[in-house]
């Protein structure tokens, strides 16, 4: 093992050498904007995905927790990668490679059947367990106010309006379910007409409607037919609640501020459009 492994720590390299001795790096899938290295590797005739986090990374731990607790409805169907090895303290995990073409940017991204399957899969994830959290809304409001207090390029008048709105919101108890956290075509694979799911680095217990925010801001906006197909697959619409607006505001703020932090200007512009859209609808 050599190419693509330079960012791994000595501990991660030692574990990887024990788990996949003599494995070869075939491709580096790392995104480059976060401290997570993603490598496609081969070992003993099989393909694997290796994820390794940096010192400040929290993504690998979340992904490992998702594999251990929430992914079995998908892995039993071959619709998500299976976990082979993991060490939360070392921020390292290895999964079996899940074949398929990324839906984002492919012909599958405009096919209602793709979205219907994605809706069906999301319903399986959300149906597993639920819990009531009295402090969820308060915590999420605090996160948004923190984003607004940090460096970004949101106009000061818009910041004032957002702060005033957030501080006026009620903070009712919230019903939480297992969520993916980044549910959109860039994390869906299409293989022989079947949709599979990858990347569980943002998985956590949240309200079900939070897995609709990114689709609503992009794919549903450009093609209502995709939204109809997705809802048909999911079987309901959890956005029918006043909390949906609050979630849209939070997502818009986080998108604009986070994208500015990491220097992703196109995504930052998308965040500013999200803010304008959600304020226009309030």
UniProtKB/TrEMBL annotation:
Is ATP-binding given among the entry's keywords? no
Question: Residue limits of the Aminoglycoside phosphotransferase domain?
Answer: 59-241
The superkingdom of the source organism is: Bacteria
Q: What molecular function does GO assign, one term?
A: kinase activity
The answer to whether keyword Kinase applies is: yes
What single Pfam family name could you report for this chain, choosing any that match? APH
Q: Which InterPro entries match?
A: Aminoglycoside_PTrfase, Kinase-like_dom_sf
- Keywords on record: Kinase, Transferase
Q: Which Gene3D superfamilies match?
A: 3.90.1200.10
Q: What is this protein called?
A: Aminoglycoside/choline kinase family phosphotransferase
Its taxonomic path starts at:
Bacteria, Bacillati, Actinomycetota, Actinomycetes, Micromonosporales
């Amino acid at each position: 093992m050599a190419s693509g492994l330079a960012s791994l720590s000595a501990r991660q390299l030692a574990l990887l050498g024990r788990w996949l001795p003599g494995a070869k790096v075939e491709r580096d899938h790392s995104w480059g904007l976060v401290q997570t290295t993603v490598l496609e590797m081969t070992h003993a005739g099989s393909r694997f995905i290796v994820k390794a986090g940096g010192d400040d990374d929290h993504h690998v731990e979340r992904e490992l927790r998702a594999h251990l607790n929430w992914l079995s409805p998908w892995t039993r169907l071959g619709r998500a990668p299976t976990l082979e090895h993991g060490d939360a303290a070392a921020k390292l995990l290895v999964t079996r490679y899940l074949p398929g073409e990324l839906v984002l940017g492919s012909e599958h991204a405009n096919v209602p059947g793709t979205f219907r399957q994605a809706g069906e899969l999301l319903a399986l994830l959300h149906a597993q367990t639920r819990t009531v959290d009295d402090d969820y809304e308060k915590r999420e409001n605090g996160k948004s106010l923190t984003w607004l207090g940090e460096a970004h390029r949101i106009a000061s008048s818009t910041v004032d309006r957002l702060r005033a709105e957030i501080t006026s919101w009620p903070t009712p108890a919230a019903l939480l379910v297992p969520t993916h956290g980044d549910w959109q075509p860039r994390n869906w694979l299409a293989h022989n007409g079947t949709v599979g799911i990858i990347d569980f680095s943002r998985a956590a217990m949240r309200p079900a409607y939070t897995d609709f925010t990114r689709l609503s801001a992009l794919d549903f906006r450009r093609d209502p037919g995709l939204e109809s197909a997705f809802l048909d697959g999911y079987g309901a619409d959890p956005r029918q609640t006043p909390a949906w607006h609050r979630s849209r505001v939070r997502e818009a703020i986080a998108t604009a501020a986070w994208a500015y932090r990491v220097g992703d200007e196109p995504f930052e512009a998308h965040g500013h459009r999200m803010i304008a859209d959600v304020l226009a609808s309030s």
